[in-house]
Amino acid sequence: MSVAAANAATSVSAKLAVALIPVITSIIVGFGSLKAAALMPLAFLPTAALYWCWVRANRTNPESRGELEPLIWTYLIVGIGGTLALSIAQLSLYFVLVSVTMGAGASEYWVEFLRGTVEGLTPEQKQRRLEIASSWQHWMLTFLFSYVMAGGFEEWLKYLPVFYARKRNQRYEKRRDLAYIDFALAGALSLVTVECIGYISDTCASDIQGWVEPIVTLAQRLIAGTLGHVLASLLTSLRAVRSDFYGPPMTWIRIIAPAVVLHGTANMAVFVSCTMQGHVGWVHPTEMISIVGLYGNYFCVVGLVGLMVWREYKTLKEHMPKQ
After folding, report:
1. HEC profile for 255-307?
2. Where are the transmembrane segments (predicted)?
3. Which of 115, 150, 161 lies closest to 267 in space, CA to CA?
4. Which of the residues 97, 138, 203, 279 has an alpha carbon 20 to 30 A from that of 109?
């Protein structure tokens, strides 16, 4: 069997998982909203694109690529177990921080933080939200959530597939440096898919009439969410390749540090736009200037990540043997 064929070989259990899990997910989502269930398959478009890219790469350079079977299980484990553990860790730490920071006002803060819309609120309630959003406690919590719970926890979760690839690489006679990228993207796109499904379900569950807002939400997650997560994971995986194969060696903290900081900055840019409109937590801005500011700031950070990925790739390309 050729190396390319061996890479593409999958077990019956992996095939069943790929076939059944999206169907089961769609059924579960459908209990909450049939509209969300109808849009859910589109959340897998980035994953389908990754698979298409992997197939092409596996045909031309199979000795350096990751095998499909462990990529599938990495995708599923990160998407199901990883995101569940991530959510519990994020909410648990944030609960402690809110309790310590807000004191007796913690319950009121949580009510406003979890509120997805301000429709139907009285002027007095909106004024109170503005007071909470303007407080130094909220700004500190926003900073910690962006850089620790979002940037730190999520980038650490996305690093685990790279760590797994680094361990697997020790088994091979010939190094598989590009497998780091394959595993990193499998983990990142798994997280992207789960987030996308969650946002679609949440939007459709809010009794919004029509298809415009759910489709806009889907497009936002497919474009903004995918770009952010994928580029950050590419940066981490390329830095891991440089550390392991070309030097100088780096600790895992140094490997993921740029992605953590840039991820946190992107999140901070989003929450600042919400806070400037008097919101506590995530509520999509409605004023044009806030919308432009939100996406302008976010894509500036994403562009910076893209530039760092390009520079890292150029550096590695100078050291990689010619194919």
Report:
1. HHHHHHHHHHHHHHHHHHHHHHCCCCCCCCCCCHHHHHHHHHHHHHHHHHHHH
2. 12-31, 37-54, 75-97, 136-157, 178-201, 221-240, 252-272, 292-310
3. 150
4. 203
Average pLDDT per block of 10 residues along the chain, 323 residues long: 90 95 93 90 94 94 91 96 95 95 92 80 87 93 95 97 89 78 96 93 79 88 92 96 89 96 93 84 73 84 95 84 57
Q: Phi/psi at 171 (nearest 5 deg)? A: -85, -20
* 132 within 8 A of 112, measured Cβ to Cβ: yes
Whole-number Å distance between alpha carbons of 4 and 57:
10
CA distances 157 to 154, 253, 302, Å, are 5, 13, 19
* pLDDT at site 186: 97
